[in-house]
Amino acid sequence: MDFESSNKQIRLPKKAERVKNKAAAPLQITAEQLLREAKERELEIVPRAPRVRVNDPEEAAEQARKKRKEFEDNIRKNRNQIANWIKYAKWEESIGEIERSRSVFERGLDVDHRNITIWLQYAEMEMRNKQINHARNIWDRAVQILPRATQFWLKYTYMEELVENIPGARQVFERWMEWEPNEQAWQTYINFELRYKEIDRSRDIYQRFLHVHGHDYKNWVRYARFEERFGYAGNARAAFEAAIEFFGDDNLDEQLLVQFAKFEERQKEVERARAIYQYGLDRLPSSKSKGIFDGLAIHEKKYGEQLRIENVIVSKRKRKYEDQLAHNSYDYDTWFDYVNLLMNEQVSREEVEDVYERAIANIPPYEEKRYWRRYIYLWIYYAVYEELDCEDIERARDVFKACLDVIPHKKFTFAKIWIMFSQFEIRQLELTQARKIMGNAIGKCPKKKLFSSYIDMELRFREFDRCRTLYEKLVLFAPDNSSTWIKFAELETILGDVDRARAIFNMAIQQPALDMPEVLWKAYIDFEIEQEENDHVRRLYETLLERTNHIKVWISWTEFEVRIEAFDKARATFKRANDSLESSPAEERILLLETWLEFERTHGNEEEQTAVEKLMPKRVKKRRPILAEDGTDAGWEEYYDYIFPQDQASKVSFKLLEAARLWREKQAAQKENAIPVDRDAESELPSVSEQLEGSDDYEAVKRARGEDGRGDEDSDVEMSSSSSSEDEEEEERQRESESDGKSD
User: For a surface tag, which of 243, 276, 410, 560 has the fewest beta carbons within 10 Å of its beta carbon?
Assistant: First the structure.
């Protein structure tokens, strides 16, 4: 017998193939559970029962029997479903079977006697059928079994009040209060007594209520308002006082005091209200007294004097600043506002100094200058306050010294502190101390501002030797600072030592790096001009032009020559500048030519003026391609360019030299090959001048040499951009003809 291999793959149905995980589910569900859930969720579509018309009592009894059987079956299926019991009992009530309905409710209570719904439905059924005693018995049973169910008590008292059984309702309330319910229950009892004008009973209930729920100040306020509403102001005041005594200073709430003070205001007791507000301010911390400040401010605006109002506003602002500083003690702007408030209100010196000491104690946590910029002004304001307002010189000096001890001078410093300290000592006529302070500043942390301030101080005292020494140290400290060299030289000039000033300027211009070299050179040149050393000025301009070929230097030189009426030298300078600026941008060359032309119009003759006008460029319109960002062609654009006659002449000269070079190479090649030269053929070859004759370059050469008497055209004549392309084509043809001749 042949057997198939056991490794053969078994084909599964398509639905089974879709299931990836064939393992059993961790939670197994039985068929009974599926059916019960389907019944509970009413997943099965049950056809609607047909409408039956009952004609006689027997049919009605049969119909009731079938209905009861359905309810009993539902209860049997799920006994713990209270909704089935309630539906069953309500159906019995609807057909008038009160006893049966009562029996169903009792059976339901046997199943779950802690269900609030079934108790409520049971009692409401009795009340609908006006069975008051039965309902009362049900409520009694309910509140005994579930005394914390507020609905039972509310429904019970409502029923008793509805049937006008006021003593019975009061008795139910008393039973309820024995369980010490929530605040709503007590308030309901109080409102019940108030509906029947029982003020004394309500007061007693309030007092019992406060024994149970006196931990909340709102209940005390509610009781006081109750007494006030019925005209018992003494009792209301006693309630507030008892509340304050009950909470004590540790647990006192600001709103309790505010409400107490407002009560006194309503009773026209202004002084008592003010005393209550002050009591709160004295005992509560600032974080819990904002409401008291607001209330006191409103109270003083209504009943107080101007001074009292201002004091309240100041106190409120002080508390506001204190709260902000408690949140962030490094908020130096708030410290400034706080100090300014105290100084404007002229409070005691001890209080202002205390705030200053607290402020300067908040040293910035990071040793970076940007964190210290606002902080350092606290020390400055403190020192100024001690010197000017308090006139305490020694304390002001101590403040300055303490400030300098706090600043980390190895990382950064504040020159203004050193300067203000030295000025403070000068005001006290302590010049030696002031110099010592500035000397320490320069020794610990040298800065240009410190040197400048120290020099200014010595200048005021006419100590010029000290100034020279300080300037020498300053130029060693910052040799790249042009203004320092200039001021040093100005000092020597003022003192009349011109040679020393000139030596200082010479040392300055020899520095390898300067922050503003143009300012230094201008100052040096102006110095030599003031000394009327024209040769020195020209030598300076020559030296400066060796370092830079800037248009402003040339124009400044020409202006100097014009100022001293050396017109020939000015003209020569213009010519040198024009030759030197050939490779400069067109705008600079035009500026130079315009300045030159203006000079010739003022100080020259017509011949010189005409010569300059011939050097003016032509303004031509050209086109150039435009490239997009991705490198593609985006069209053409027109622009204006300037063509200088000098540039064209140099271009033609270059072409002549190129032609001569080619001719020399041709002659050398003929000698090497020893080819006899045909004189007639050579005579037929055109010369270089003949080759250029008739071309645009030839015309440009003639204009440059002055052979054409027509002069230059107007500078605004527009030319086509095709002239440059024609020149290139002519050069190409000339090179081809020469190469052909060489090959022959």
Answer: 410
